[in-house]
Amino acid sequence: MAAPVCVLLSALVMFAEANYGADLAWKKTAILQGEYWRLLTGHWLHLGWVHWAMNQLGLMLILWLFPQLLIKGRWVTGVVVIGLGVAGGLMFTELDGYVGMSGVLYGLVFYGCMIDNTLPFKIKCLVLAGVISKVVVEQLWPEVNAATAEQIGGMVAIDAHLFGSLSGFALGGLAWFKQHRTEAAPKPVT
């Protein structure tokens, strides 16, 4: 249910983008002037339908890989917290405008790996190694995203991937710590 809701919401925003996109996109100067909704709404906008489709397929793959994200609205928590982490991190870069969900998706991979116990540990390590490798490579050699930039019709915001990964790791770490602290707590004697 979560993936279709997310896809539908994102599609509705895409249709509204022609009229309201300028008012919803992450834009540093506007945020600094008090338009704080842009910290979250910019993640729902995209450069075009190809960009949108890539992000929605990524979201569906993540929710399929990590089904425990669907329990108790964890995916909503992830999207909001990681989205704020990405948006906040981008405030410290030279970037002035941003749209897209890829930073949030990178974070959801980290969060999912840390809270979901349905995937074998070795598979989760491989997934994380792949994501970490991609983030490192694109930070060192941004030109590796040239083909993707051409497909989506704009620059790939590699710092969004970095801040999303860091935010997802932090959120996942907190959730993991809370879960394991609860499991390790002594049981009362009755």
From TrEMBL:
The chain crosses the membrane at residues 45-66, 73-92. Keywords: Membrane, Transmembrane, Transmembrane helix. It is a multi-pass membrane protein. GO terms for cellular component: membrane. One of its GO terms (molecular function) is serine-type endopeptidase activity. Its main location: membrane. SUPFAM superfamilies: Rhomboid-like. It is found in: Membrane. It comes from the Bacteria. InterPro entries: Peptidase_S54_rhomboid_dom (IPR022764), Rhom-like_SP_proteobac (IPR023826), Rhomboid-like_sf (IPR035952). Residues 34-174 form the Peptidase S54 rhomboid domain. This is Peptidase S54 rhomboid domain-containing protein.
